[in-house]
Amino acid sequence: MNMLDIIAKKRDKRTLTREEIAWFVEAVTNGDAPDYQTAALLMAIVINGMDHDETVALTMAMAHSGHMLDLTDITPYAVDKHSSGGVGDKTSLVVLPLVASCGVKVAKMSGRGLGLTGGTLDKLESIPGYNVNLSETEFRALAKANGIVLAGQSGELAPADGKLYALRDVTGTVQSLPLIVSSIMSKKIAAGARGIVLDVKVGSGAFMKSVQDGVELAQAMVDIGVSAHRDMIAMVTDMNQPLGEAVGHALEIREVIDVLRGGGPADFREHCLEVSAHMLWLAGRGERWTDYDRINAQLTDFLDDGKAFATFRAMVEAQGGDVEVVDDPDRLPRAAYIETIRAVQERYIAGVDAEMIARAVFELGGGREKKSDAIDHAVGAVVHVNVGDVVQPGQALVTLHANDRDKLAHALSLVHSAVTYSRDEVPPLPHVYETFVRRAAAG
Ligand code: URA
User: Fold this and answer.
1) 207 CB within 6 A, ligand 1
2) Domain 3-63 maps to which CATH number in 3.30.2350.10, 2.60.120.260, 1.20.970.10, 3.40.228.10?
3) Pairing mode, if any, of strands 79-83 and 195-202?
4) What is the pLDDT of residues 78-116, one digit of tens each?
5) Which of 63, 70, 221, 223 has the highest local Cβ count within 10 Å?
6) What's residue 175's pLDDT?
7) 181: CA distance to ligand 1 center in Å?
8) Sorting pLDDT into bands at 50, 70 and 90, what band is 145?
9) Whether the predicted pLDDT of 329 surpasses 80
């Protein structure tokens, strides 16, 4: 086998065999495939696509390119969630303790933020002392003992994806359904989950801008997951406006704590309840958690009675975080300058552009361009309004938290253009556009 023949085959719109795909992925992982040939094949895939079997083969080869996490000694049925990335998306931080408080063990490896996307690990690190760098032995021990662990990757999961994604990023080959599906699903499969809940975001603050593209991606990921013997639920959810109110690390942790204590913004709470319900339903596998009404009643109780909060607090303590900060979120990192923009007229809110809000927070120092960049945990935005709200003169729209006056001025101008108004009534944005559910065939 050689790269030239494989590239030519895909260029000529022919179907690659499982062996050819496995050979290519191994060559990429070992560093044997030169970047120019890998990029040529990626471009041929972008242009000519891949069928279902090719995409399954690519996904599985990438999943097996590094360490495969086996969680069966922790739980017989590991359930995981994945979001395609959104603005103010701190869902995992509520959902994991909530699901764990129902007796379903969760052991999740999360990532850091890059560009406009926030990362769960960065958010957690606004709690002083919280250790995301666990060895696999520590990760397993915490999952077994406490039923919950949330940390960074220990072994290298799906290293072929890291190499391919870096090349896709600089060769115009990110936008391809089989490449996106295999990239996301290979990491989830390598992380040991049997049941996977996918939250595919669509809108201005998401990777997928249109509902149609999101639906296509969700369906393709469900197909591939089921073929890889995973039970799958994929939700296509709105990301035209930020999720919840807070965008920025410490501010998001504060909002997480609010929700875990039974409060918080209604849209974010609702979203967390829905993702958690799907995870429990998958984990129930026809035995325990089978009925959505019962699941929802249980989840709501655990948010309102403090059980989920106690689980989060125990997780923070187990990973070395300062629980006094969890008990008193005023101790979280705080910014020097706080400024609020307000409505000047009575109007309906027509838009709160999520991408623009993310850009403002990035400009304040809340994001990183390169992996090595430092981030400011204290800065961010609190968005007080949703599309469809009617606002009165003087009503708070967005509050910015900054540590630098010049950056604040720039961020304010971005936020001013992020919020748009209408004299006419505007319907609220839907939360979920579509949900796809499919269990893997037995065996
Ligand atoms: N997110 C990923 O992990 N991979 C892609 O290809 C696109 C988005």
Assistant:
1) yes
2) 1.20.970.10
3) parallel
4) 999 999 989 999 999 999 999 999 999 999 998 887 778
5) 221
6) 86
7) 8
8) very high
9) yes
| Amino acid sitting at position 81 | K
Ligand 1 centroid vs 74 CA: distance in angstroms?
Answer: 28
Q: By alpha-carbon position, which residue is closest to atom 5 of ligand 1?
A: 180
Answer yes or no: CATH 3.40.1030.10 is held by domain 79-328+432-438: yes
Structure tokens at 27: 């060559």
Read off the amino acid at residue 199: D
Q: Quick one: pLDDT at residue 443?
A: 53
What tokens does 115 get?
């560009």
Within 203-248, residue ranges assigned H as helices are 211-227
How many Å lie between the centroid of ligand 1 and the Cα of residue 303?
A: 32
Q: How far is CA 436 from CA 95, 228, 409, in A?
A: 19, 16, 43
Residues annotated as catalytic are 82, 161, 168, 183, 187
Which of 50, 84, 169, 175 is the pocket-test mutation for ligand 1 (most atoms within 8 Å of CB)?
84
* Overall fold of domain 334-422: Aldehyde Oxidoreductase; domain 3 (3.90.1170)
Q: Domain extents for the chain?
A: 3-63, 79-328+432-438, 334-422
Query: What share of the chain in percent tops pLDDT 70?
Result: 98
State the closest ligand 1 atom to the C-alpha of 165, by its place in the atom list counted from 1: 6
Instruction: Give helix 292-304 / helix 91-101 axis angle, nearest 10°.
Output: 100
pTM given for the model: 0.93
Instruction: Report which residue type is found at 84.
Output: S
Calculate the average pLDDT of the chain: 94
